[in-house]
Write a structure and sequence with these properties.
104 residues, mainly beta, Umud Fragment, subunit A, 7-stranded antiparallel sheet, 1 helix, 4% helix
């Protein structure tokens, strides 16, 4: 008997990796914590999602603060110690390399 949860086809799993949050821009929510991130296609992004962006050849962890179509405005949780969209402007979805899936 086939399970109702299985279509019989092997499911493609999205790659996940662990990243450490470095610096104080995401305090107090993610103070030096390790986070699990989903790479590649991660569905629709929403305001409040925590993402990994590629900016100036560095990966940075930020929170989506505003969204207009394909454009995202990202900020750190600790505004006094964050270099974010307030300094480098709006990003596109293509600048997002991963979405934090744990902790939420």
């Amino acid at each position: 008997m086939r399970s109702l949860l299985s279509s019989g086809k092997p499911r493609k799993r999205k790659p996940v990796i662990v990243r450490r949050v470095v610096g104080s821009s995401m305090l107090p929510k993610l103070p030096g914590d390790q986070v699990v991130v989903g790479i590649g296609y991660f569905g629709r992004l929403r305001v409040g999602d925590v993402v990994v962006i590629n900016h100036n050849e560095l990966e940075k962890v930020k929170r989506v603060s505003k969204q207009q179509g394909d454009k995202l405005f990202v900020v750190g949780d600790n505004l006094e110690h964050s270099t974010d969209s307030r300094y480098f402007g709006w990003l596109t979805r293509n600048d997002v390399v991963a979405k934090v899936i744990w902790p939420r």
